[in-house]
């Protein structure tokens, strides 16, 4: 009898997951059907793939840079005292103000959008990591050191798992901000992407195509969040400190 309550909870979760999958599938199917009748599906999906590729590449680069910066900042109290105010000022600088300079240097290329995305995404990840590392229990690090964890092993088996919840949380925020930024970036630079396609629909004063494109984009982003970021967020709870 003592397992009855747990079994009920598991069954409810499975039932909710099935309902969620069915509703998601129906929503996407309806949007796709309507979208195929109104917009240029091939151009839209190719544009979305281009944009998704840029956001994904920028995310991983931002994650690596943010993690390395975190290790550098926490390496000593003197570096931390100098770097934190400096980084705080940098994060408040509007990244889009760099567009004219980047276009002069690199022209209207996809590289410019990636640079803007990195500048946009790095701050939520970096400051979430910096905040999380201050909450790491020192006794855990001391215990790991006593048991022989050094350098890479300490990083891999202790620090990374402890920072994993912060990495996921910061990544979710950065991912959302990146999709806001890339639409505007692609419109400014005029490179193939979903932002450019939506801008062309808007400039043609075709509100129906524009609305369907926006809804379809939101549906695709919802699916990514639902089946990638949400499971990672649930997984990260296993690494939270008690």
Secondary-structure map:
Layout: H1 4-38, H2 41-73, H3 77-91, H4 99-106, H5 110-134, H6 138-146, H7 151-189, H8 194-203, H9 207-236
Helix pairs in contact: 1-9, 2-5, 2-7, 2-8, 5-7, 7-8, 7-9, 8-9
Content of β-strand: under 5%
Mean pLDDT: 79
Query: What value does the Rg take, in angstroms?
Result: 22 Å
Number of helices: 9
Identify low-pLDDT runs. 1-11
Number of domains: 2
Classified in CATH, the superfamily of the largest domain is: MetI-like
Shape: flat
CATH architecture of the largest domain: Orthogonal Bundle
CATH topology of the largest domain, what is it called?
Answer: MetI-like fold
Q: Which percent range fits the helix content? A: over 70%
Main structural class: mainly alpha
**In sequence order, what are the helices and strands, one letter per element?**
HHHHHHHHH
CATH class of the largest domain: Mainly Alpha
**Termini distance?**
29 Å
Give a short account of the largest sheet: none
Number of strands: 0
Please describe what this structure looks like.
84% of the residues lie in helices and 0% in strands. It has helices at 4-38, 41-73, 77-91, 99-106, 110-134, 138-146, 151-189, 194-203, 207-236. Helix 2 (41-73) crosses helix 7 (151-189) and helix 7 runs antiparallel to helix 9 (207-236). It is an all-alpha fold. Residues 1-11 have low confidence and may be disordered. The protein folds into two domains: 1-38; 41-239, MetI-like fold, CATH 1.10.3720. It has nine helices and no strands.
């Amino acid at each position: 009898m003592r397992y009855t309550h747990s079994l009920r909870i598991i069954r409810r979760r499975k039932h909710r997951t099935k309902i969620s999958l069915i509703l998601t599938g129906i929503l996407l199917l309806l949007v796709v059907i309507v979208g195929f009748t109104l917009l240029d599906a091939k151009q839209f999906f190719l544009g979305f793939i281009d944009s998704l590729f840029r956001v994904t590449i920028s995310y991983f680069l931002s994650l690596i840079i943010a993690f390395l910066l975190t290790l550098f900042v926490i390496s000593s109290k003197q570096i931390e005292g100098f770097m934190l105010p400096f980084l705080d000022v940098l994060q408040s600088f509007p990244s889009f103000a760099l567009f004219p300079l980047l276009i002069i240097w690199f022209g209207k290329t996809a590289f410019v959008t990636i640079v803007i995305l990195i500048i946009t995404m790095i701050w939520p990840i970096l400051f979430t990591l910096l905040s999380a590392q201050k909450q790491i229990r020192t006794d855990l690090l001391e215990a790991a050191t006593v048991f022989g964890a050094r350098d890479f092993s300490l990083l891999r088996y202790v620090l990374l798992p402890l920072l994993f919840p912060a990495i996921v949380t910061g990544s979710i925020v950065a991912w959302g901000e990146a999709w806001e930024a890339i639409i505007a970036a692609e419109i400014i630079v005029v490179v193939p992407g979903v932002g450019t396609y939506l801008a062309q629909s808007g400039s043609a004063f075709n509100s129906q195509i524009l609305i369907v494109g926006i809804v379809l984009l939101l549906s695709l982003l919802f699916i990514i969040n639902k089946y990638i970021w949400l499971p990672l967020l649930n997984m990260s709870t296993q690494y939270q400190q008690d």
